[in-house]
Amino acid sequence: MTLPDRDLIARFLEMLAAEQGVAKNTLSAYQSDLQSASGLVQGKLAIAGPDALIDLARHWRELANSSVARKASVLRRFSAFLQEEGFRTDNPSAALPKPAQMRPLPKILDTDEVGMLFAAIEARLAQPDPFPGDYRLSALIELLYGSGLRATELVAMPRNAVVADKPFIIVKGKGDKERLVPISNRARQAVSVWQAFVPEKSRFLFPSRANHISRIRLFQIIKDLATQSGLDPVKVSPHVLRHAFATHLLAGGANLRALQSMLGHADIATTQIYTHVDSSKLVELVNRRHPLAKRTLTRRTSGSNRQA
Fold first, then answer.
1. Chain-centre distance of CA 265, in angstroms?
2. Which fold has domain 111-282?
């Protein structure tokens, strides 16, 4: 007897969490997509055939290609799960659409624009009696741009995550997976100064009254800094600083695999979006870093040709 959609969806999400470490936010999005699809086929998603899936996809006609691709991808994974677990003998997901989509390049700031942000922070710290919030701001921006942290990783960072004599921090990212992230001397110094203002009983490096500062509050802080720096606040966000970290490192010759590790990407294809570096930079790297760059091409004279 086939279980109801809601029970099978729950089992599918439990499998993703337990076996693949899928993040809570992603699981929530998957649950929403699957429950919505189940409703559109009157609660018979688990037994839906190709024709039913084609009818289902018609409800997505007004959506962007990226949204259709996401919904179809979730249904494909769900169908494969049902087949693998023996809840059905076939997999009808080939009937789902595969919309063509271009992955947008990430928004970034150039080095001059990042310099404007730091100049604004330095101006605030140069005042006779800076506010504690100015030191917090310095630590936040140094960690965002200096280590490429996600907003959620940054706001929830433990109070003692940064140690003065250790060049790495342990970050818990998506799916509760831990990774080592290098931290610059500048960032360690900025955090050290800010830690003096953090109550010793606080669990978090950036506390609020009840917990830690929220992602929304972090966005507000970044937008305010952008305005003060003379930049368009629409152009600046925590994620944009993470993109800037990745792009500027890659432009400086960083290894793509190393960058993948630092960013916490499960798939290197995600990291490859940062390869939109100026072609001149890439040519320079090849000419300067490739092992053959230091070898001189030996030309043969006409007299050295071998006789046939």
1. 7
2. hpI Integrase; Chain A (1.10.443)
Domain ranges of the chain: 5-95, 111-282
For 6-11, what is the mean pLDDT? 94
Query: Among the options 30, 135, 136, 150, which is catalytic?
Result: 150
**Residues 6+ away with beta carbon under 8 Å from 215:** 151, 152, 155, 238
Closest CA to 233 of 219, 218, 216: 219
189-204 pLDDT, tens digit each: 999 999 999 998 999 9
- SS3 of residue 141 by DSSP: helix
> Annotated catalytic, 239?
yes
70 three-state secondary structure: helix
Catalytic residue, candidates 88, 124, 172, 174: 174
Can 242 be counted among the known catalytic residues?
yes
Rg (CA), the chain: 25
Residue 171, classed as helix, strand or coil, is: strand
- Tell the CATH topology of 5-95: DNA polymerase; domain 1 (1.10.150)
| Cα gap 237→224, rounded to integer Å | 10
Closest CA to 223 of 240, 198, 199: 240
